[in-house]
Design goal:
The structure is a single chain. The chain has about 625 residues and is mainly alpha-helical. It contains 26 helices and 5 strands. Strands 2-1-3 form a 3-stranded antiparallel β-sheet. It has a two-stranded antiparallel ribbon with strand order 4-5. Strand 1 and strand 2 form a beta hairpin.
Length: about 625
């Protein structure tokens, strides 16, 4: 079939040297006779000569395999929460080493995303995703085989995995958006985010399944990420390149063949002419330019500069409202709320990840009905309220935490573990709260942990090196040692608040920044601009993940204060989106960029138009 199509296309057009597609399109179209078109109908009976775009198996397959890149992103985000509980014990990591292992992937992803624009322009979307799958597979194998006593090998594997994630995270939305028909573009890009949240849910389930294997469980958790990356690698060996990238780089025949296959029709000339006309206008301004020249052009072009500000702003808001704090530290947050049992905390975090996955499907259903702008505003408003709820839950847990019964009888000389309550006690890394249950309410005292640098590797009942005592009437077997939580009965409030947070975040703020970023840039700037926005996303992700423990362990700010800060950022984000983000639903990619040409405030000043599909062209109606 492909040979027949290629044969027909070769009769229509043959490119040589530096010949550009937009300079030869008209002559190629004019040389196609009516009899040749009739022959196409006879030979390619399964490809309909119709202007109506339909969904084909090729669209679904390329979206599916591309979205595996999102699954890898989500799996790594979700699996680290439970895996690090075991890695800490296995390698006896300090707090700094713990943060390096977690944040190393994020920093590497930011680098991979920043480099992804140039890699995409040079290699194309398909080859970039193949490269990302290879890199991720190598990193997953290195993590799973990391030898005992050499945490640096694990750290190196995390860095390599991060590079693969960064490449995939900026390429997948662009690849899907450039291949998808405009009326389905939003849904198909959201599928990528559905796979991200699905990966987080699967990771949380894997954490729960292997959480009881304290010496080897983390190897399975981290190593299993290599399975979907291999599937993605194999799948993309058979996937087509983006037709827009092919056309931009002078491969007219391949572009037409690819577009005909993924549209399921030979009548793709109108769409190709629209794309090549856009490229022709860009060629007049100079296409063959260096990265530095392209960056300068982006920032001196007012409409593109505004689009970049909107795209980078959306990605920054997505991270600064704390989503990956919730995902990276979900098990730890639940522990902080007062859940003593480690495995129970891991399974509760799986419940939270399940909620994230389920509510992302809501965004899939609403993106082409409500549009991007309404989903963003409604989602972020709910996130703001949920963060307030979450902050209140931690404040309530703080007030309900047990006091130090011996505070008034203790001396300060040489003792830095004198606090009025359990909540204040555990914020000091060198202290822990030794308690015992006496009826429905626990009681205890804050005590110095002589091995606090390794305290995270101790179980609640391991008192061989920790001098945990209450008084002479309480035996060691009755005591519990808490270094990262306080025993309270209302931990469910925080779990409910987390689910509410994700229920509002998942449909809008989760997928829409990626969807909007894949739509709002002109073709010549798309790879570079999406790369910039993705780098901003990962950089803000890094900043939040590196500061969360510092903020939550601060005696002044505390856990409730940390989430209150995220709530204030969400409020500022609402103002940003209302003022600057336009509606892009149903518009062809070549038309979306025009939304930023008229007003600095396209979100509140532009008039929405509905695009209708008519034979041979794209028209609008007010």
């Amino acid at each position: 079939m492909d040979d027949v199509i290629n044969s027909r296309l070769s009769e229509n057009q043959s490119l040589t040297g530096d010949q550009r597609p937009w300079n030869s399109w008209k002559s190629a179209a004019d040389t196609t006779t009516d009899s040749e078109k009739d022959d196409n109908d006879d030979v390619l009976g399964n490809l309909q000569e119709t202007s109506e775009t339909k969904m084909t198996i090729h669209i679904y397959l390329l979206s599916l395999f591309a979205a595996i890149g999102g699954f890898l992103f989500g799996y790594d985000t979700g699996v680290v929460s439970g895996a690090m509980l075991l890695v800490d014990k296995y390698y006896q990591l300090s707090d700094l080493q713990h943060e390096l292992v977690v944040s190393g992937t994020i920093a590497a992803a930011a680098v991979g995303a920043a480099a992804g624009g140039s890699v995409n322009e040079c290699m194309g979307r398909r080859k970039t995703l193949i490269l990302a799958a290879v890199v991720f597979t190598i990193g997953a194998g290195l993590m799973a085989g990391s030898p005992h006593g050499y945490w640096e090998v694990l750290f190196t594997g995390r860095i390599i995995v991060g590079l693969g994630i960064g490449l995939a995270s900026m390429t997948v939305p662009v690849y899907i958006a450039e291949c998808a028909p405009s009326h389905m573009r939003g849904k198909l890009v959201v599928v990528n985010n559905l796979f991200i949240t699905g990966g987080q849910f699967v990771a949380a389930t894997v954490d729960g399944a292997f959480g009881g294997m304290e010496t080897t469980g983390w190897r399975f958790m981290l190593g299993l990420a290599g399975v979907p990356s291999v599937v993605m690698l194999i799948g993309f060996l058979f996937m087509p390149e983006s037709p827009r990238w092919l056309l931009r780089h002078g491969h007219l025949n391949k572009a037409k063949l690819t577009l005909a296959k993924i549209r399921g029709t030979l009548d793709v000339e109108a769409e190709l002419k629209c794309i090549e006309q856009n490229f022709k206008e860009e060629e007049e301004d100079g296409k063959d330019e260096s990265l530095w020249t392209r960056l300068q052009r982006i920032f001196v072009t007012p409409s593109v500069r505004r689009a970049v500000i909107v795209g980078c702003g959306l990605q920054a808001i997505q991270q600064l409202v704390g989503i990956n704090t919730v995902m990276y530290y979900s098990a730890s947050i639940i522990r902080m709320a007062g859940v003593e049992d480690q495995r129970k905390a891991i399974w509760w975090s799986a419940l939270v990840a399940c909620g994230n996955f389920v509510f992302t499907t809501v965004g899939l259903c609403l993106v082409e009905r409500l549009g991007r702008r309404k989903l963003l505003l409604g989602s972020l408003l709910g996130v703001f309220l949920s963060l307030g709820f979450l902050s209140g839950g931690f404040w309530f847990a703080k007030k309900q935490g047990p006091p130090d019964l011996y505070y008034s009888h203790r001396h300060t000389d040489g003792n830095d573990c004198i606090y009025r309550s359990c909540d204040q006690c555990i914020l000091n890394a060198g202290c822990g709260f030794c308690y015992v249950f006496n009826g429905p309410q626990p009681f205890g005292t804050c005590q110095h942990n002589s091995i606090h640098s390794n305290s995270k590797s101790r179980s609640a009942h391991d008192h061989t090196d920790v001098d945990c005592w209450i008084n002479m009437t309480v035996t060691r077997n009755d005591t519990h040692w808490a270094y990262d939580y306080c025993p309270v009965d209302n931990a469910w409030i925080v779990v409910v608040a987390l689910v509410c947070y994700l229920a509002w975040f998942a449909p809008g703020m989760g997928p829409m920044p990626w969807t909007v970023n894949s739509e709002i840039y002109p073709n010549w700037a798309r790879s570079t601009a999406v790369s910039m926005a993705t780098a901003v996303n990962w950089s803000c992700n890094l900043a939040v993940s590196m500061t969360f423990l510092t903020l939550s362990n601060n005696q002044v700010i505390g856990r409730h204060g940390a989430f209150l800060i995220y709530a204030l950022i969400a409020l500022l984000g609402l103002i940003f989106i209302y003022a600057l983000v336009p509606e892009t639903k149903g518009k062809p990619l070549e038309e979306v960029e025009k939304l930023f040409e008229k007003s600095w405030c396209p979100g509140c000043c532009t008039r929405h138009k509905n695009y209708v599909r008519v034979p041979g062209d794209v028209q609008t109606e007010d």
